[in-house]
Write a structure and sequence with these properties.
single chain, 238 residues, alpha+beta, 3-stranded mixed beta sheet, 12 strands, 41% helix
Length: 238
Amino acid sequence: MSVRTVRTRLFAASTVALAALALTACEGGSDTGADGPSSSTTATAEAKPSTAGSAGTAGENGSNGTGAQGGPSGSSGAGEDGGTAGGSGSGSGNSSGSDGQDKGIPGKCSASAVRITATKVNRPVNHLLLTATNTGSRTCHLPAYPQARFGEAQSVPPVFEETKPQAVTTLEPGKSGYAGVLLSAADGSAGNGHTVNTLTVPFDDGSIATVSLPSGGVHVDDALKVTYWQPTMDTALY
């Protein structure tokens, strides 16, 4: 074999080797380029269904008021929050219903919604009739009895215990309750008799009604006494 032939074969072999190396490098670059975009696309595709799934879970939970199980931890937390919000709405409804029921319960009468008048009667003698009329729009209950303060008296008169009704007198709008007042002893036997021109009657809510007395005032003495509030005039003037 000649030297020229050997060189020719070595050159050919070198060329083949270089071509193989170039092909390998080219294939490696192609694989690397393909993997990058392919991997990125896959990650994006997976992220979008995951996000949509979270939103769907949160929406379902907000509607049903219950937390969902499974799915990414983030979407599960959103579902539980939605369930809690649903439960809160239900609780608000119950509270509103409870408030409506409370409004139906009669409260204490007030001087701003109840007008009290005082009328001198012929029978029984030396008696005054107090009439309390509900001028408001809501039903209320009167105090047990009128703690009437005549003139500058430092104390209120005692009550006839035998006139105590089975329940406190309740006034619907426009309705009235009644109480009788024994002003003085019929035979004049009681002491400390004097004439008074003013009368105030307090209510259980702290308000106080000012009551106009008959012209010229009324005569009172130590026999002064009142009845419990009554639902009828007849039971007040016993």
